[in-house]
Amino acid sequence: MNWYLLFIETLLLTITIDGETFERYKVYHVVPQTKEQVNFINQLHLEPKFDFWEDGTTLGGASDVMVAPELQEKFESDLSRNGINFEVTIDDVEGLIQQDRRDMFLSRAERTALLGQVTFRSFMSVSEQMAYVRRVAEDYPNIATLEKLGESYEGRDILILRVSSGTSATTTPKPVIFIDAGIHCREWIAPPVALYIIQQLVENPLNAYLYENVDWYIVPNLNPDGYEYTQSHNRLWRKNRHLTEGAGCYGTDLNRNFGYKWMFAGASNNSCSETFAGPEEFSEPETRALRDWFLTHSEENVKLYLTFHSYGEMVLYPWGYDTVLPDNFEDLHYAGQLAAAAIDQSTTINSRYQVNSSAILLYPAAGGSDDWVKAVGGVDLAYCVELPDGDAPYYFMIPAKQILPAVQETFEGVKAFHGHIEEISWYGLQDDSMILTRDV
Length: 440
Hints:
By secondary structure, this protein is α/β, with parallel strands linked by helices. The protein has helices spanning 3-14, 35-45, 69-81, 93-110, 126-139, 190-203, 224-232, 285-296, 329-346, 358-361, 369-375, 403-426; strands at 26-30, 51-54, 63-67, 86-90, 144-151, 157-163, 175-181, 215-219, 301-310, 314-317, 354-357, 381-387, 429-431, 434-436. It has 12 helices and 14 strands. It starts with a helix and ends with a strand.
């Protein structure tokens, strides 16, 4: 380590960012083994003072919950009284956050990327992310088109990049893959995945085949206000930064705010809850921006929707609002398995993906973007991809050194999805100008 990096590390040990502290906060791992214990854990979900990092709302489902120091004694007593075994997996959350912040600053100090460039060795700021997307559109105007999807509550641009080789060579419109990331802003690994997909599509000539017969729309960061807040004030912030009129706390969980089965399950009407669904469906400018794109682009032939989250190594499909399956669940499961297998075969960080519906594999949660895109947006194949947390118990705080392997393996899964979309859209299709086949 050179003297400059040593200075940065020493500085980080002596200063704190002007924001919330999580000193002596603990994370507990609990697994209910009876229906009564499940009911007790589910009641805790209704309490905004508990932050569930992982929600196990079914029998045998694990939960990881962060608890403030003043609540820990009663929390442990209540668990014991209900016969629930627990394990403290993180003894001091603030220590973990400081390690994460030190990792972020050191990785940034080591990089030489200029504004407009992209890096996968440190976590970029919102302005750096958007500068890169704007530069790509300027440098590759023949294939990359940048639009403004909308604005966040605090007025930041939400950008969407289209990657395309041009209009369809047939009378059939080209299939579209739509991707967004960062809706839960503390899940920092999600935007780099979107940016890596952009880089590989636009700047790597070997991947030109990926947009020859398929168009792409990519939103790198759907919650820029929240993301910026996690970098400057509260690393664990999850929601957007809108203070609803009359509310006691800031922020709405954007992935509970979409207008399909809104508030049906897994959401809260308490503004201080991490899963606050907002005062009404689509109350937030960020969710309205995504909704309006789909409603005003009905001519687009969107065949696949991917929203990237963290963590858990899961390919989740609807429905999320309840443990019921859509009519095409076999198609959803098959395509999800293709992507999961591609990731598992390429991983260098021991990722092992599971595939199932959100409510069955994870937990019931209504108001998610993937449910709405499928039910109202009319996209048959819609997924929430829960990205890896790396080789240490960082949860959604994957270390910067593992950004690159995480985005690389995820891109292999995205390519598998692309191959499936291309096949079901074009294989054996014949019209006056084109026959497209795939090698098997």
